[in-house]
Amino acid sequence: MPLKGLANAVEIYELVRARPLRSRLRAAAAQGLSRFVGRDGEMEQLQRALERAGGGHGQVVAVIGEPGVGKSRLFYEFIHSHRAQGWFVLESFSVSYGKATAYLPVIDLLKTYFQIADRDDARTIRAKVTGHVLTLDESLRDTIPALLALLDALPADSAFPSLDPAQRRQRTLDALKRLLLRESQVRPLLAVFENLHWIDSETQAFLNSLIDSLPTARLLLLVNYRPEYHHAWGSRTYYTQLRLDPLPHESAAELLHALLGDDASLQSLSRLLIERTAGNPFFLEESVRALVETRVLVGERGAYRQVQSLPAIQVPVTVQAVLAARIDRLPSDEKRLLQTAAVVGTEVPFPLLQAVADVPEADLRRGLTFLQAAEFLYETRLFPELEYTFKHALTYQVAYESLLQERRRELHTRIMEALEAQSGDRLGEHVDRLAHHALRGEVWVKAIDYSQLAGDKAAARSAHVEAVGHLTTALELLERLPDVPNRIQQELALQTTLGSALMATKGYAAPEVERAYARARTLCQQVEETPELFRVLMGLHMFYRQRAELHTSSEIGAQLLALAQSVENPEFLLVAHQALGTTLYFLGDFVQARAHLEQGSRSAIRVSPSLVPSSTGRIPVWCACPRWPEPCGRSDITTMP
Questions:
Q1: In what helix (H) or strand (E) does residue 418 lie, and over which residues does it extend?
Q2: pTM, entire model
């Protein structure tokens, strides 16, 4: 565009939208990363895997290493090199407190894929997901409900929540896999999942499912994790594991030379640092920064001079000790701010931090600028809300642990209250975080409520491991607080949902299942009427049948039928007839079994198969046939929940 006063036209750009940096390394790159050294062999192996995946032979590469050795940096350099040009990159990150939240890394990936902003309402999310999926492939229409369920954007009239839990889970896993595999047919896909040592069980199940389907896909899956994490992929021919060790001496020396410079005074110090850090890149960087802050080194990056004698220099023996010393040297206001940010989490939204920091906005911004300059925090997003992240998981961990317990508890409480106020009508999206802060803030009543909500949310997603965790926590807290209002009703709901989740995780005949449902049955006897009783009896009926205690199962089946008849609930009648009939079949009482199953068959014509007490799972129902007792299927017989 020609401009007045300039001889030549000027290229003009339009700012379309603000794009979040997504990762701490992208944020760090804005300030300048240290030299990337010593990983040529690993980059070559990643390149070979990329080439095979690009040729339609999908690959998974796992990078394993201790904290600070550069697992994330290796991925960053590879993704941003010429090698990955033309590849569609999707990144996802796990956090240390995310194990209790089902699909957390997957939801993060979906929000990136569909370009969903935090402020998007459910209607906007539905429009983005539906439009994108149908544009990709009309045949993927049936995946939309499962994707919307993960994003808390299902329409109220959706039939997806009424599906059997096992069906919901399978459809969710299939939808995620089909979406990525179809995308890889349009353009080669590079998917990154970092910090698998912190993933939840459902994300693990998704990765297992995706990896099963990789061999014919144009998809490269990169994962990294610490040594304590384990998986079952090692025998796959398309799996590669890279062990990332600390830098060898020559590479560590090269990194230090880039950080320090070549002043003659630095030679002995460099040898000491390499020996003390054992070549761990993050440890090296933090040690150099600590020496600069303590005025052992003066100058600027790449041109430092040593001004204290070597015997007077104290280099801590662990990177955690280096970080703790650096935090202790911060001015009191900045130290307090960093600790407050650590209680918020590894990702720190500015509005939430502002609500609990107790400082004027101008001072808050100055403090954050200081912490950025000291490379404790990085700015990762400007719009729609400013957001920060910690430089490294170890930085977050040490800052959090440097707080006294009472101060930590107080901050968790205030963060919970601020999050409640800021969530508005979208509180359900944050119940996992609210449960986390309420529990650590020792706000016991709210911790029970939010743990229950988080457990219900996980159960609705068929994330049964996470559901068991949340529900068990709520029950343990409830036991410590006997005077909680509506205690019996709340424990009854918790035990009933827990029984269902335990069936899915430990098996129908597990002793824990009996304990949950037996306790729930006792609680039912303490209230006059409760709709939970039918679910509880059904759970016990299934438990005893799976244990082959058929007479007990039959007795409970008769109670189910009596209850269904007393409330005149047609869906309950269908379930009760089928439950009792199936148990009688196993007992060899074919006449009575046939009568109940045929009654159930007639009821099925009038009742939808989407039944209320479906938490106990579905089993096949045999019908009365001329060749009884041989089981056979008949199309007009439904399945029993």
A1: helix 405-423
A2: 0.80
